[in-house]
Amino acid sequence: RTAVVWEAGEQGSALVHAAGLGQHAMMTRLLQMLPGYAPSAAAQQRVCAAALHAAVESGEVEAAELVLGASGRQLPLVDVQDSAGRTALWLALASNVERWEELAGLLLAHGANLLVAAHAQPTLRPLDLALMFHGPWLKATQWAPLLGILAGNRSTWAGVAVHAVAETPDSTAEQLLEELLAAGADANRKRLSLRGETALHVARTGRAAQLLLASEGRWELVDSSNNTPLHCACASQNLEVATVLVRHGAEFGRVALNADRKSPQDLARGECLRFLQGELARRKAAHEAKLREEDERQRQKEQRGAATRLEELDRMCQTLAQNPRLADQSGSSKLGAEAEVKAEAVNVWEERELDVEQTSIVNLAPHPPSSLLVIGRSGTGKTTVAVERMVQAYEAHGESFNQVFVTMNAVLLDCVQKNFSARCPQHRLAAERQVQSLSDARPSDFPLFLNIKQWLPLIIRTVGADHAMFSHITPFLQGAIPEARAPSGIDGMEAAAAAAATAEQAGPTMEVDMQCFEKTFWPRMVGGGRRA
Q1: In 248-330, which ranges are continuous DSSP H helix?
Q2: Alpha helix segments (H runs only) across 77-142
Q3: Most CB within 10 Å of its CB: which of 129, 242, 466, 473?
């Protein structure tokens, strides 16, 4: 108030001092002399405003009323700001004097504006202060005129009034809340108070909660005590608001704990608690139903895939049955093939570091589990990768993981079995015996290392010769041995399988290069002639 002393001299300073002390007689004389020491209207307004501020800060209601009554009609004082931009109403609501309610009511009766922000604190207006510290007073004495002001200034008031409207349980407030949100009010704005709650934290009706959520209100925001809006609704047993929040996905179990380690369900009682318990059961049932639905879709997908593969196998077997067996290759080709097999066997036998691609295949774990088809030219490490996966599975699961290695070449089979036994010494302790069927095999018999001559009869003895799968194996056996008749019974199937395996071991039926593989085999493998 230095400017008052400089502009109005000692008399102006005396008026401000007398107002702060509540010296009414001196104030009356100085107000009567006002035109003499403050000749201009602007100077008189500044002097009287300074005296009003001094009276408000001191809690002198009568002094404030004297200043307003003597000069208020000619000089509007209630919204005059001091050097920090604070009005008399701002000072009244921010002070802790005993008679602040009387002062605030007096100023509002003289037309004080709740929206004049202080320069030093632009986010704090009288309305913010009233909502922060004097909410009950504001609702009890000023709510009706405040609603009228809000209705006429939606865009201006939207940011600060949404909390006050949301916590008012009547239809008028709900309608106003809808209009404020439409005007741009932030549904997630936190109140400038020690609790720092959002409008959802203080919502009193389900309609208010719905409006806030529809305006991108977030049910997961927390106040200073880590309470979500659902914590507040359950603590006040507000079933209506709790129902709206839960229906919009609000968490209420142990995943949502406040600073006291309490969940919304811990705070709920009576009907609110029974509702949450029922909702928990409903969510559990919905989750289980979703899992069953996913399992059913996966089962159907696997069935369709199995049917497709079976049809493709049937077509391939029919093709093999219709084409005559190619003549054996020349001796030099056989020697070359044998050399390639021996080279592959050496690669498997010798422990060597896997490259990045091989390591990725070794560690591949499809989910859900599915077949793994590894394709590559001779010497690229296909068998090495297969054996490495077998070793890892054996070390992880032991004999409980039933593995079978099948090959058509006896040299490769011997090398792989020796390599595996060297890598897994405990496997060499397993009793060696002839396994007649897979159902007869003991855990100690695995892994099994078999050639095709041993594998086919083993399968036949396991599932029986009349099994549907052999309707697809029979054409293959007939194609491999053109002069053979369709086998009947287990003995016949075993004989045909052994003959087919012997014929296959005698030499490859055809030479497969990359061009042949691309044109003949790959389209059948992927189905429909698609290219990778």
Answers
A1: 264-267, 270-322
A2: 88-94, 100-109, 126-133, 135-141
A3: 242
Rounded to an integer, what distance in angstroms lies between the CA atom of residue 465 and that of residue 486?
12
Inter-residue contact 252 to 264 (CB < 8 Å):
yes
Q: What is the pLDDT of residues 361-396, one digit of tens each?
A: 888 888 787 888 888 877 778 888 888 888 888 888
Question: Residue 433 — pLDDT band, cuts 50, 70, 90?
Answer: low
Q: Alpha-carbon distance 485 to 382, whole Å? A: 35
Q: How confident is the model at residue 484 (pLDDT cuts 50, 70, 90)?
A: very low
Q: Tally DSSP H helices, then E strands, for the chain.
A: 27, 2
Do 55 and 27 contact (CB within 8 A), yes or no?
A: no
DSSP 520: I
Residue 113, class by beta-carbon neighbours within 10 Å (0-12 exposed, 13-18 middle, 19+ buried)? middle
Structure tokens of 134? 């004097």
Return the structure tokens found at 94. Answer: 């921010």
Strand intervals (E) in 25-142: none
DSSP bridge pairs for 406: 450
Rounded distance, CA 110 to CA 200, Å?
34
- Say whether 462 sits in a helix, a strand or coil: helix
Apex CA 223: angle with CA 220 and CA 225, to 5°? 115
In which residue are the tokens 């010798």 written? 350
Which tokens belong to 243? 């129902």
Q: What is the pTM of this model?
A: 0.40
